[in-house]
Amino acid sequence: MTETELLMWARGPALQVATVIFLLGVLVRILEILVLGRKASLAEARGSAVAGGLRTIVTRSIPDRGTLQRSTFNIVAGYIFHTGFFVVLFLFAPHILVFQDVLGFSWPSIPTQIIDATTIVTIIALLAVLAHRVRHRVMRFLSRFEDYLVWFVTILPLITGYFAFHRIGLTPPTLIAVHIISVELLMVVFPFTKLMHAFTLFMARYYNGAIAGYRGVNS
Amino acid sequence: MSASFERGINAFKEQMDAPVAAFFSSCVRCGLCAEACLFYTETGDPKFTPINKLEPMRRVWKQEYSFWGKLTGALGLSKPVTDAELTEWETLVYDSCTLCGRCSMVCPVGNDIAYMIRKMREGMAASGHAPEGLIGATQRAVTIGSPMGVKLPALQAQIRHAEKDLGFSIPVDVEGVDYMLLLSSMEIMNFPEFISAVARIFRHAGVSWTISSEAFEATNSGIQIGVSEIAAELVERIVAAAAKLKVKYVISPECGHAYMAIRWEGPNLIGRRYDFKVVHILELLDELRASGRLQTSGKETQRLTYHDPCQISRRGGVVQQPRNLMNQIAADFVEMPETGTMNWCCGAGGGVSSNERADEIRLKVFNRKKKQLDVIHPDAIVSACSNCRIHLEDGLEEYEMDIPVLSLTETIAEHLVDREQKEGQQP
Predict the structure, then answer these.
(1) Which of B49, B110, B266 is facing A60, going by the closest CB pair?
(2) Residues from chain B contacting residue A142 (CB–CB below 8 Å)
(3) Residue B182's closest CA among B311, B321, B280, B312?
(4) Which pTM value belongs to this model?
(5) ipTM given for this complex
(6) Disulfide check for B124: which of A138, B129, B240, B349 has CB 3.0–4.6 Å away?
């Protein structure tokens, strides 16, 4: 396989397969949750479950002061790598072109120097998060193979993307192909792992807030 | 109860719903819930991380309710939950979780972990992994009507005693009144002053009320142990008594789990709505205060703080009312750091206090409450749960802290303006 063929494969059939697995997998996982259903409470409501659910979807992004003090590193590093990942994914001009191809519309990008710096910061944050996972007694205790796999498939597109942008080591077509394949790996792993939280956290927060809101508590 | 491993696994399955599946799907194992749990913060042992307490139930969910889990299961790649694991988890689910729900407030993806622990106990009890202390309390609740074995004659004796002090009678089995008061066994046996306090306040405010001789116990061991059938039976007794006496309201007393049981779980346990409303005693007192029917004079000058019982505030929604009442009677009311819906549990709720095996750890984790108190140095702690009160007293003694623990209702009763004065003020 020549490097052009590799790139064509990565952009063609591999991307198609990865997209189908990703979309179908995410859909199945969400349906698996919804079909279980939830009994309506017969207790007289004190507050609105819907308002509570919607509120908690938003408010749970901000930690309470005590938790922030007790888990500062976890929260700060978590914020940095999540924000960094989304900035690089959605605001880098070449990525927006890919989304435009699929979605039919686009949005403004930010300068590549900022993307470049954000990538470095995000990679550092992810390395720090891994170190924390290995060293912190609770996180080490809770961690399974899946946690390390998910970490790996998350940092890989950032590293391959950085290498591709700076043309380090290999020829540009190969670097781009490797970058695309690393993204496909992330997409394929996604529905089978905790990466699903990117979608299900909205459901979890809603249910949490709804259960509390029904009783008149802001959770 | 004929418990078996199969019944336990089936009970886990029956408990699965969309929230549980969403919660398990969302956990990223960040460990933040550990820092919200006093059993972790005061022991430093990661096994007490709240989400870990659910691990057997999570595996049942994954293996039975997710495509991926079913696939790996079919290929023989997943490890079914064993009875030995449930034995190992017993102390995590019962001894070191008070269902306080603080973890549920902190989880960044929004998992309501306490909601799931409550459900997990159904499977633990059905598989024969409930603690002896809770089994005994539940059996007494079913056969005698009280987890502490308090029978009607004991209540009658306390009522007679109170009437002698009060100089007026306490209504028992009076039909057609507005309110039926429930009591916890702990109040009857350890804090009978509560009955007198309520009688004085209600006489002062002109509330028509009664106690039922057939259903006076407010607590529900069926919920704490995790056997919904028993929990429902205990709720039915109250519903029947309320119907017989034709009351409009049932009052949940100063007890956190009783409030959760009768207010929020009760209708769902029996599968129908009530014909009456349930109010917590603090809700009612605050209503009476707001409408001017509850008038107090003078204020406590000592530095008072309020300990939120978890099931009343964080899990129950009665947060502001006790603060209104505290401000009414306390000149120096000071909040603990992290209070209201973020308050730290005393360490003995959720059946932990009925479980002698947990005595050592509940006193150890009281250190969290000590740390809160050390910041504000109150002269006395006011609370609204007899179970919290007993454990606060135990904990304060263990840590050699000389701080009295008061009931909010009883403290209010001490500040009532006398009847003549009140009547004189009325237009």
Answers:
(1) B110
(2) 29, 31, 46, 49, 51-52
(3) B280
(4) 0.96
(5) 0.96
(6) B129
